[in-house]
Amino acid sequence: MFKSLFIYEFEKFWFKKINVVCFIAILIVNFLALKFALQSNKTAEMTDIVFSSSLNFHITSLQEMLITAFNAIVITFCILSFHEEYRKGYLRMTFTRGISISKLYIAKSLVMCLNIFLIILIHCIVSLLFALIFLPKANVSPLFFKEGLYSVIDVILFSIKYYILAYLSLLTFGSIIEFLSIKCKSIAGVLGLSLGFVFLNIVYIAYVPIVFKNYADSDPIVLNYSSISTMFIQAKGAAYFAAEITDVFLYSMIIIFLIFKSLSYLAFTNKHYLE
Amino acid sequence: MLRIIKSEFGRMFYKKSTKIIYAITILFPILIFYFFQQRWGNDYYTVDGVQYSLNNLNYPVTQMLEFNALFIFIILPLFFSESLSSEIDSGGYKMILLRPFKKWKLLIGKWIALMLTYMSMLLFVFLINSLIGYLFMPNVEYTSYYNINENLYLFDSIFYNLKFYSIIFIVHLSILPIISLLSILFKKTFLSFFGSIALLVGGIYISVPLQNILFNTPDVAYSIIGGTYELINMLIFIFVTFLIFGVSLWMWNKRIGSIV
Fold first, then answer.
1. Do A187 and B190 touch (CB under 8 A)?
2. Of A80, A200, B215, B223, which one is least surrounded by beta carbons within 10 A?
3. Closest by alpha carbon to A51, among A60, A39, A41?
């Protein structure tokens, strides 16, 4: 029963053209990142962190696009699969059959996790391909927040850690938007609140260094306070985690993810919806 | 035509989102003042590497960088797409199309209502910034601006500020035809919203003059009034804006009946 529910949700996801467009948009996103990389390569040296080579383009492009394009894609997914179906009442049709509302929520969440994973995976593959074709080849590369140059194996380890936290941060952001999507009555409300959330995050990030004026940027206390902000993790935290400076971002993301997932679960499985 | 505009106004002010955006336009300058002046103690602004000290006369034009980014990339796309495409998406616009008016007149009425509303918002921002300037900034009799040799007294300075705000207004209005076009093409509110943002961000990546106009609008405004800006970029920008206005009007007239 659960398996067929999962497949039904998965098919429904791919049946919507906009979701497919989001996947195609990854190509455009990579193209823009490539253009930007080629531009900044002109003024940078091979040993600079801003220099994009075949070895680190998949990291620099993700770092650049995580806050903007990927968050927009996650918002789109959440609006389509939670707000539209839940608020416009399409889901009522599903419940005319004997389907458990909590199982449906779990299936939906799993499909969402799977598709965000696919987005990240496709980005990785496309950026690696683009880098191989268009960018200068390199055997060693500098990494974020690490001194010196690193070989291929180090870069792979760094990338895996970076991608894991990037994925987790997208899931967390998704869980927050999911909660807003279920609670808000109009799409404009969901959009406004989610962008307001992003904006508040940015204000918070700007505010933390001012409060801790006397501390260094990578001081554990500053990082602990910054770890509350999803945007900080997408901008810098993932690199801090991958450079093995601190693990606090991993824990904070898991905690925020669990909190908002349970809140959305409670909101989604509200019995009033069925009446 | 007047009645169409009045009806648009009525519907617009009935919505909660319009009221929230008004609240943001009023609160945002106060927040900027609180953070930048009270907490961080900025008492100068920089144009093209030259520092100018803040005073009551130039304060309204110097605090627009953050406002510009917030409005051009978030608030205006949301405000315009909420007004243009949410009615189409929900089907409520059918009721309006049923009345015996020309379709293009309805769209132009909407545009005029939106423009006037946004103009009033910018005016609010100007008034609040002026008020903050007079209350909390050092009071001076005259001030100097970027690339203007003589000192400007009160009336000239206000005139300068108004010119500055009109340039910002013209740049911001370019969002309106993009949203109109996208709401005809896609129908869904969030698609026209994200589509317009994607177009703006894509434009920023592709063209440097466009990046300056959209992102560094205050700097562009300083240099236009100061006479150092290559006006051809701005003229092309305005021409393209008008072109998109025309295309969206044409498409609206042709397709709106079959879409709603």
1. yes
2. A200
3. A41
Check B194 against A76: CB less than 8 A apart. yes
Residues 39-68, chain A, touching B (beta carbon < 8 A):
68
Regarding predicted confidence, which is higher, A123 or B205?
Answer: A123
| Alpha helix stretches (DSSP H) within chain B | 2-14, 16-32, 59-62, 65-70, 76-90, 93-97, 103-136, 154-173, 175-186, 189-206, 208-215, 217-226, 231-259
Q: Using an 8 Å Cβ cutoff, are B114 and B83 in contact?
A: yes
Contact A217, A223 (CB under 8 A): no
- Which residues from chain A sit within 8 angstroms of residue B190, using beta carbons? 75-76, 79, 187, 190-191
**Residue B152 three-state SS:** strand
CA–CA gap between residue A154 and residue A191 (Å, rounded): 39
Give me the helix-helix angle, A152-183 and A248-268, nearest 10°. 30
Rounded to whole angstroms, how far apart are CA atoms B161 and A196? 29
- Asked if A240 and A158 count as a contact pair (C-beta separation under 8 A), the reply is no
How far apart CA B253 and CA A214 sit, in angstroms, is 61
Residue of B nearest to A207 (CA): B35
Alpha-carbon distance values, A213 to A13, A203, A233 (Å): 47, 16, 20
Task: Identify the residue whose tokens are 């810098």.
Answer: A236
CA dist B20 and B121 (Å) reads 12
Over residues A131-184, the pLDDT tens digits come to: 999 888 888 888 888 888 888 898 999 999 999 999 999 999 999 999 999 888
Chain B interface includes A204 (CB < 8 A): no
Best A186, A194, A203 member to test B by mutation, with max B CBs in 10 Å, is: A186
DSSP H or E stretch at residue A153: helix A152-183
Q: Which of A32, A75, A79 sits opposite B205 (nearest CB)?
A: A32
Across the interface, which of B86, B191, B197 has its CB nearest the CB of A18?
Answer: B191
| Tens digits of residue pLDDT in A215-268 | 887 788 888 888 889 999 998 888 888 888 888 999 999 999 999 999 999 988
